[in-house]
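User: Round two. Same drill as before: sequence, then structure, for each protein.

Assistant: Same drill it is. First protein:
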Amino acid sequence: MEKLQELNDAKDRFFSILGHDLKNMFHNIIGFGDLLKDDIKLGNIKTIEEDVRVINSAAEMLLSLLLLGTNAQRGNLLFKPCLLVLNEMVNEVVDEIYEIAIRKDIKLKMTIPENLK
């Protein structure tokens, strides 16, 4: 019975994290959609292209997360731990929010050792 409770707790944590990540992806899509509307009014092609790129990227990530959740619920989720370079992961996230930060006059500074795994 204790093992069942541990598995249930792990499932709940997983879906809590998944829900949080899904919410963030929706915020990215909605936020950049709003920026896109403003950029269309201004006719700024460069920022329009960037807005569309970020929206597309967020939508692809959203789809991946939804498929991950579906596979987890069906019990088809494979656990394949691997080392990741934290700096690379953080750079990907920063790249996604960089344009929003600039437009809001927010400076981003990252201080992560180069090959931290």
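Second protein:
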Amino acid sequence: MSKKNIHTVYSKDREMWETKKEGQSKPLASSHTKAAAEEKSVREAKKNEVEHIIHNKDGKISDKDSYGKDPNPPKDLKH
């Protein structure tokens, strides 16, 4: 069974940032700021050794970080 990635997304209905597991509609956590949601998402992604995908308010992907065990990881030029 493959592990599910973690997403940081904005909920227009709730007007909050959410930490969501891929394929699940219910959020794992909610935050008033994107930064707080990203912190929660990073902790969850590290715990599960999966990818963290960050979305903008419009839903487009703005960034990705991998916390899995990649035998040949690409060089991350941002961090």
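Residues 34-48 form the longest helix (15 residues).

User: Perfect.
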